[in-house]
Amino acid sequence: MISSLRGTVLHTASDHVVIETGGVGFSVFVPADVAHIAITGEQLQLHTSLIVREDALTLYGFVDRDELEIFGQLLSVTGVGPKSALGVLSHLTVDQIAEAVTSEDDAPFRRVSGIGPKTAKLIVVQLAGKVQPRVVSTPAAAAVSGVAEQVTAALVGLGWSEKIAADAAGQAAEDATDAERESVQALLRRALAAMSQPTAGQGAKRG
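Structure (tokenized):
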């Protein structure tokens, strides 16, 4: 079992990267946000899942171990294969998945390409009790979270996927001053400024 890879990025595409480690290049399917941040010539470490089938050995990789665990849980859902599970993780963060399951809301899953209404409902039903959203510990943190959620919604309205929008809003909140963290407009401006700067060798990508 190949459980992780660390090496030099040789190639990036919209849904996969090629990582060289030990003189061997491994093609790994990744969520859209990972493909977006991967830079050719730089180091990248991924937690991986090897899917073995009669006609292929396919690697799926994630920067965050929590995403790898959710990927495995999604595969346990009837009708969800590796590509569909990867699609969910390209569109939604781990917290967004947990929140949707906890609130019995299948709408976020229905917005994922390749996930129909029946499968979306099965994800909610079959993952119930298996995933839990992380708790915001303080009133101040809750306030920042609320502003970041509004920024996320605004970015989704502008065309980015919920996951990339949430990651950008979270990063903007982390980098912002205390005053900016309390302002939706200020945090949105910071997020947009960061997202308008393409990574080396790549343009800005919308999910």
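The chain has a mean pLDDT of 85. The CA atoms of residues 110 and 116 lie 6 Å apart.
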